[in-house]
Amino acid sequence: MFIRVAAPAFGPVFLMDVRVWLAGLSMLLFATITGKRISFRGRVKSFLLLRALNAGVPFTLIAEAEMEIPASLTAMIIGTTPMLTAVAASFLGEEGMTFRKTVALLAGLAGVGVLVGWTPIPLTSETLLAVGVAFLAACCYALGGIYVSRKFQDFPAFTMAVGQQLGAGVILLPLALLRLPREAPPAEAVWALLALAFFSTVLAYLCYFRLIRNAGPTTTLSVNFLIPVFSLAGGVLWLDETVSWGTWGGLALVSLSLFFVTKGGNGGRRRSGMEKRPLLR
Question: What is the pTM for the complete model shown?
Answer without folding.
Answer: 0.75
